[in-house]
Write a structure and sequence with these properties.
The chain is mainly beta. It has helices at residues 105-115, 156-168, 233-239; strands at 4-10, 19-20, 23-27, 30-31, 37-41, 59-63, 66-70, 77-80, 89-93, 96-102, 119-123, 130-131, 142-143, 151-155, 183-186, 198-201, 204-213, 241-242, 245-256, 259-261, 266-268. The longest helix has 13 residues, at 156-168.
């Protein structure tokens, strides 16, 4: 069976809702616009759905060169998708400290009121370079504000197998959006991604860096912001628990930049 690209997703603001696309350009940091913005607290530490699952209920959308941020029963706020300013502070995401700058007092106020926490929206400029983990990124690859790597790919058939196991034990199936992946493929065998090394999609080429260990964010309903747990982690842990975590999906780094489109043939070697 031909393996095809069935989903393309970007998350312009780390932790907020994503945007499904028909096509996207790849960059050294990930898909264009993916996770270049991030919400930080007053100590300049990133906040995510791990602490604030309500972040899932904040939607993002692209309107020309503007990013729209909205939520249920709220007026939306817009800002430049690529704001221009000189970095004014160091922000922390996991173990990385990254130069960034605030972009919109209006967005800061909007997010703070909606989330009930004093927060700021910051942008990673092109001048900031955050390295991937050198244990897995062999060519000094860099990443946006994503957890660790520029791209995350998942397999529809693996999700179908996982959901069959979940429902067989009385649980409710989970959608792919729980895993917040950039690239989704159809037509591959279940768990075939464990053996992928180099992946070509459209004019872009990627290298598998490491399998993706999953956290409690996968237990949050991405439509309502409700923590539904314990699935999918409960079932995943019965057959995908390793020394690299409870695995679903594969982190990728770029080998050749290009454009990916829905329906593109996906090839492996």
């Amino acid at each position: 069976m031909t393996v095809k690209l069935s989903g393309i997703n970007i998350f312009p603001v780390k932790g907020l809702g994503g945007i499904a696309l028909d096509q996207s350009d790849t960059t050294t940091r990930g898909l264009q616009y993916d996770r270049r913005l991030m919400v930080v607290d007053r100590d300049h530490e990133f906040v995510s759905q791990r602490e604030l699952p309500k972040m899932a209920t904040i939607w993002t959308g692209l309107i020309g060169s503007q990013l729209e941020i909205s939520a249920p029963d709220q007026e939306s706020v817009c800002l430049d998708i690529e704001p221009r300013a000189i970095p004014t502070r160091l922000v922390r995401v996991w173990a990385s400290q990254v130069p960034a700058h605030t972009v919109s007092a209006e967005a800061d106020a909007w997010l703070s009121e909606y989330l009930g926490l004093d927060v700021h929206l910051v942008y990673m400029p092109d001048s900031a370079e955050r390295p991937c983990n050198p244990e897995y990124a062999k060519n000094n690859e860099i990443v946006s504000f994503a957890d660790g790597f520029p791209f995350l790919i998942t397999n529809e058939t693996s999700l179908a197998d996982l959901n069959q196991k979940i429902t067989a034990s009385g649980g409710a199936a989970v959608p792919m959006n729980r895993f917040r992946s950039n690239l989704v493929v159809s037509g591959a065998a279940a768990w075939a991604e464990d053996g992928w090394n180099e992946i070509t999609i459209g004019s872009a080429v990627f290298r598998a860096a490491k399998p993706c260990g999953r956290c409690q964010v996968t237990t949050t309903d991405q439509a309502t912001g409700e923590v539904r747990g314990p699935e999918p982690l409960k079932t995943l842990s019965t057959f995908r628990d390793t020394d690299k975590g409870i695995l679903f999906g594969v982190n990728l780094v770029p080998v050749k930049l290009g454009t990916v489109r829905l329906g593109d043939r996906v090839e492996f070697r």
